[in-house]
Design brief:
single chain; 244 residues; alpha/beta; Alpha/beta knot; seven-stranded parallel β-sheet; six-stranded mixed β-sheet; 7 helices; 13 strands
Length: 244
């Protein structure tokens, strides 16, 4: 079933208006007809099974026939603080993180990050990353579109996560798998959870020290060294299985 997102103000009782680029996609690409059904999610919360009622050049009028009782979201909010990687790895990370249930993705300019974005390039890149997040949210039937934030400095990222219930940082020198299991099992409903992932080459020791002082817990992901595009998805997968 096709899936689209609308703003809260586009919902009026059981009537829902789809506007913007999705209009062309529905009319000319999918060629949907009156009576066909789609899943509509409000960015303010709520999933609706809808039927197409009217297709006009500027909007599609739909009728909600059922409000879904079960949310597609995890019971906790997982925030992925991802060290900026090289090339287009960030696109893959965002796509898969959204599929696995991440609530937000915050690119972090760590000391070993090779990529440095000027303000103009950053704005364009974040816009593209957000579009990838929305596409992944549609594909995976998420109830929300996770936000991809502007690039953050490492110190600012630590400050943002300071009030979270649980903050984790995979680190190759953290060797106690039992501790990793115990920390993962403390994740519970209603929590804000931070996952810090270093860029290629990982975090510098000074960054790890700063993170530990800020309350972040170093964890191991096993004996193998994982790439930056793998490590975050590994933690997200484990949290998803424990929280779902």
């Amino acid at each position: 079933m096709f899936h689209f997102f609308v703003e809260e103000e586009q919902i009026n009782g059981s009537g829902i208006l789809v506007t913007g680029p999705d209009v062309n996609h529905i009319r000319n690409v999918l060629r949907m007809k009156p009576g066909e059904r789609a899943l509509i999610s409000s960015r303010g919360g709520g999933d609706y099974l809808c039927e197409v009622r009217e297709l006009l050049p500027d909007y599609i009028r739909m009728e909600a026939v059922e409000k879904k009782a079960d949310s597609m979201e995890l019971p906790a909010r997982i925030h992925l603080f991802q060290g900026l990687p090289k090339s287009d790895k960030m696109e893959l990370i965002i796509q898969k993180a959204v599929e696995l249930g991440a609530y937000s993705v915050i690119p972090v300019a760590a000391k070993r990050s090779i990529v440095r974005l000027d303000p103009k390039r950053e704005q364009a890149r974040v816009k593209r990353w957000q579009a990838i997040a929305e596409s992944a949210a549609k594909q995976s039937k998420r109830s929300i579109v996770p936000e991809v934030r502007p690039v953050s400095g490492f110190a600012d990222a630590l400050k943002e996560a300071a009030g979270f219930a649980l903050s984790l940082m995979p680190y190759e020198r953290a060797g106690d798998m039992g501790q990793t299991r115990r920390l993962l099992k403390t994740a519970g409903p209603g929590m804000d959870i931070a996952v810090f992932i270093g860029p290629e080459g990982g975090f510098e020791e000074e960054e790890v020290r700063q993170a530990v002082e800020a309350g972040v817990k170093p964890i191991t992901l096993g004996k193998r060294i994982l790439r930056t595009e793998t490590a975050g998805l590994c933690v997200l997968s484990a949290l998803m299985l424990l929280l779902e």
